[in-house]
Amino acid sequence: MTEEKEFSILIIDDESEMREVIDSILNPLYNTFLAENGKAGFEIAKREIPDIILTDVAMPDVNGIEFCLKLKSTFETAHIPVVMITAKAMDEDQLRGYESGATDYITKPFNIAILRHKVKNILETVKKLRDRFTLENKNVEDYTTNSHDAKLMQSIIAYIDKNYQKTELSIEILSAELGMSKSTLYRKLKSITGKSAVDIIQEFRLQKAHTLLSNSSMNISEIAYSVGYTDPGYFSTRFKERFNIAPSAISKSTSPLKENENE
């Protein structure tokens, strides 16, 4: 069984040999997608939402600068960091790249170890941003990198907060509310927070339940129903998995469900 790779990388270069070289360096560590030009790369970026993109600058049709400008102005892909690979080492050339939204540069011929470290460092930053996401953190700018993503997260959290008690709340309803496809919402949320919409909805419900268990006289069944669960037994199982304690050990209710009915 192969080890699951945490991150994915899109490699864009019009030279097939260069694509294969970079792929051979990074594929053992990351999931990789390959594109022969900026146009094809943009379509893959929108479909797959990779965690980082490495792109050549000088390419036919859509070059690296044009690609980066389009990527950064598109809602689905604006957050993705870009490393430009170029034979041009002049300051003005690199400045154009940075102005288009690139995160970093590497010049050809490149040192393999330096390439690996640049990619590793950027992905570590991506992971740190994801780790900052919690429902308690109301400052979405702490874990987003652009205004599009900040607005999206504000909308998602506000909608779930308003509707978490509804048992029918789902990724289908949430994606329709946001005007996005389910697949786009899933990939976008995973890239920003590391979690799916289902994960976030459940976390919201469980945290609300934890507060109610600590501060209300409602019994466990009543709390389960009030936060959107239809099965108190299933709620108790998920609660114990999340907080490592049974809800009956927290509940202030004078008539909680029996322990063996909730575990």
Identify the notable features of this structure and list them briefly.
263 residues, Rossmann fold, five-stranded parallel β-sheet, disordered C terminus, 11 helices, 5 strands, single chain, 2 domains, alpha/beta, Arc Repressor Mutant, subunit A
Report what the structure shows.
By secondary structure, this protein is α/β, with parallel strands linked by helices. It has two domains: 8-131, Response regulator (Rossmann fold); 134-263, Arc Repressor Mutant, subunit A (Orthogonal Bundle). It contains eleven helices and five strands. The chain has helices at 16-26, 38-48, 64-72, 91-99, 112-131, 147-163, 171-178, 182-193, 197-215, 220-226, 232-243, and strands spanning 8-12, 31-35, 52-56, 82-86, 104-107. A five-stranded parallel sheet has the order 2-1-3-4-5, sandwiched between helices. Helix 2 (38-48) runs parallel beside helix 3 and helix 10 (220-226) crosses helix 11.
